[in-house]
Amino acid sequence: MINQKKPNIDTKEIIILYQQGLTTLQIGKKLGLTKTSVGIRLKKSGIILRKSSDYSGKDRYWLWKGNDYLDPITRKRNQRKLRKWSYAVRERDNYKCVKCGSNEKLHAHHIIKLEECIDSKIEFDISNGITFCQQCHIQVHKELNKKSY
User: Fold this and answer.
1) Contact yes or no for 106/132 (Cβ under 8 A)
2) Cα 100 to chain center, whole Å?
């Protein structure tokens, strides 16, 4: 086993970078360390590490595009109302896939596409939903994509 010497980096430099708002991962990449070793050095210095939720959107989301990092459809999918709709659809279908009867990895699927019913009452109507397991859901979308061409 090759014994590699860790870079001799002053902990003060790490602290300064961390106080400037860089993440442990960003500091590690910049200085040739792992994010774990950066975190350990910061903790040993008495620094309280930030939670990932403390970072701004651009640091947390790969879809970041200025202040509008998510398209309207993706924002809709993340809404509490939509999660409640999804739960209600799965509950109505007795937590089983209507195609194969599986009760694992269930998804609520919009019968009328979400993109087509945004801002309408049908968007969150459980009659516009059906429960599929993950495998059947993927298959349904493959079939729908074939029809659209």
Assistant:
1) yes
2) 28
- 64 part of a folded domain: no
Residue 85, number of CB atoms within 10 A of its CB: 19
Cα 106–Cα 108–Cα 111 angle in degrees, nearest 5: 140
4 lies in some domain: no
Amino acid at 51: K
> Residue 36's domain spans which residues?
11-59
Residue 67: what residue type?
Answer: N
Q: Do both 84 and 141 map to the same domain?
A: yes
The mean pLDDT value for 63-87 works out to 65
Q: What does the angle CA 49 – CA 23 – CA 9 come to, to the nearest 5 degrees?
A: 90
Domain count, the chain: 2
β-strand pairing of 129-133 with 106-110: antiparallel
Residue 5 pLDDT class (50, 70, 90 cuts) = low
Among the listed residues 85, 108, 84, the one whose alpha carbon sits nearest the alpha carbon of residue 95: 108
Model pLDDT for residues 27-43, shown as the tens digit of each residue: 988 898 998 999 899 98
